[in-house]
Design brief:
It is a single chain. The chain is an all-alpha fold. The protein has 14 helices and no strands. Helix 6 packs antiparallel against helix 13 (245-258) and helix 8 runs antiparallel to helix 14.
Length: 295
C-alpha cells in the first residue's frame, strides 16, 4: 500500500485541481471578483506557510535571485490561471493552459541547456497545432484571440517557467518555494488592486468569506501539498501522465455541470495538446540528469 500512496495522493490532488473551477465560480457569483478573490486566498496560503519560509531562511537566503523569480513566475502563473478560470470557459482555459510542452521545451533549452530530440520536436509541433485549432484555425488571422485566451496562454507559460526554476533550485526546500510562490501571487494581486484594476468588495456576507477561507485551507492548500509531495516520490514521467487527469476532470465536470461544449475542431486541437503532454511525460523518464543551477 505504501508504494501506491504517492499515486493515490496525486490522483486525489489532480481531481481537486480539475474541479477547482467549481468553488471559484461559486464564490465569484457571491460578489467577490477575481483579483480580490485571489488576493485573499493566496494571502491566507502565504500566511499559512510563512513560519516555514522564515524557519528555512538560512537554507534559501543564498538563492534570493531564484526565489524572486519563483515569486514572479509562480505567482503570475497562479494569478493568471485562477483569473482565467473564474472569468472564462473552463474547458477552453484548461486546454490552452496545457500548452505546457511548448513553453517547457523552449525554457529548458534556453535556461537549462537541455537537448531537444525528435520526440520533443514532435510534442511541440502537436501542441502548437492544437492551440492553433482551438483558437479558431486560420480564422485567428482575421480576429485576435480573446483577452481570456491570452491570459490562459500566459498562465501556462508562467507555470512552465516556474517548473524550470523549481528544477534548477533543488537545494531549496519545496515548502519554501511554495511559500514564496504564494507570497508572489498575493503581492501581484495586491498591486493590481492598488492600481485600481478592480475594487475590493465591501458588501459581502460572512458566509461567503468563510467559504473563501475554507477553499483556501481545505481545498487549495491540500491540492498544492498533495501534488508537490507525490511528484517527489515517483518517476517524473509517471506523475506527468497522472496530472493530465486535471484536464480530463475539468472537461468532464464542465460538460456535465454547466453544459460547456466546444466545436469538433476545438476538441481535435485539445486531443493534439493531450498527445503532446503524453509524449513529454514519457520523454521525461530520461530526464533524471543533473540540471543547471540558478543562484
Amino acid at each position: 500500500m505504501r508504494e501506491h500512496l504517492p499515486v493515490i495522493v496525486l490522483l486525489g490532488a489532480s481531481v481537486l485541481w480539475g474541479l477547482s473551477w467549481l468553488p471559484l465560480k461559486s464564490i465569484n457569483t457571491m460578489g467577490i471578483d477575481g483579483i480580490s478573490l485571489i488576493f485573499v486566498v493566496y494571502g491566507i496560503l502565504a500566511l499559512t506557510l510563512s513560519p516555514l519560509l522564515l524557519k528555512q531562511f538560512i537554507i534559501w537566503k543564498e538563492h534570493k535571485k531564484v526565489m524572486l523569480l519563483i515569486a514572479i513566475f509562480g505567482g503570475g502563473a497562479n494569478l493568471a490561471f485562477t483569473y482565467a478560470l473564474i472569468n472564462g470557459e473552463v474547458i477552453r482555459v484548461m486546454v490552452l493552459f496545457y500548452l505546457l510542452p511548448v513553453w517547457g521545451v523552449a525554457g529548458g533549452r534556453i535556461f537549462l541547456k537541455e537537448d531537444i530530440d525528435r520526440w520533443r520536436y514532435m510534442g511541440v509541433f502537436l501542441a502548437i497545432s492544437g492551440a492553433f485549432l482551438i483558437l479558431g484555425g486560420f480564422e485567428v488571422l482575421n480576429a485576435p484571440p480573446s483577452w481570456i485566451d491570452l491570459i490562459a496562454l500566459a498562465s501556462g507559460f508562467f507555470f512552465a517557467m516556474n517548473n524550470i526554476l523549481f528544477r534548477a533550485s533543488q537545494s531549496v526546500p519545496v515548502a519554501a518555494k511554495l511559500g514564496v510562490m504564494f507570497l508572489g501571487c498575493f503581492s501581484l494581486a495586491g498591486i493590481l488592486l492598488m492600481g485600481g484594476v478592480e475594487q475590493f468588495p465591501q458588501d459581502v456576507n460572512g458566509n461567503t468569506w468563510l467559504m473563501l477561507v475554507s477553499y483556501a485551507l481545505l481545498w487549495l492548500l491540500v491540492a498544492n501539498i498533495g501534488s508537490q509531495w507525490s511528484v517527489t516520490h515517483m518517476e517524473a514521467g509517471r506523475s506527468s501522465i497522472i496530472i493530465i487527469l486535471e484536464l480530463i476532470t475539468a472537461v468532464v465536470s464542465a460538460t456535465l455541470i454547466t453544459g460547456e461544449t466546444m466545436f469538433p475542431i476545438e476538441y481535435m486541437g485539445g486531443a493534439l495538446i493531450v498527445a503532446a503532454a503524453f509524449i513529454e511525460a514519457i520523454r521525461t523518464k530520461d530526464d533524471d540528469i543533473p540540471v543547471t543551477t540558478i543562484e
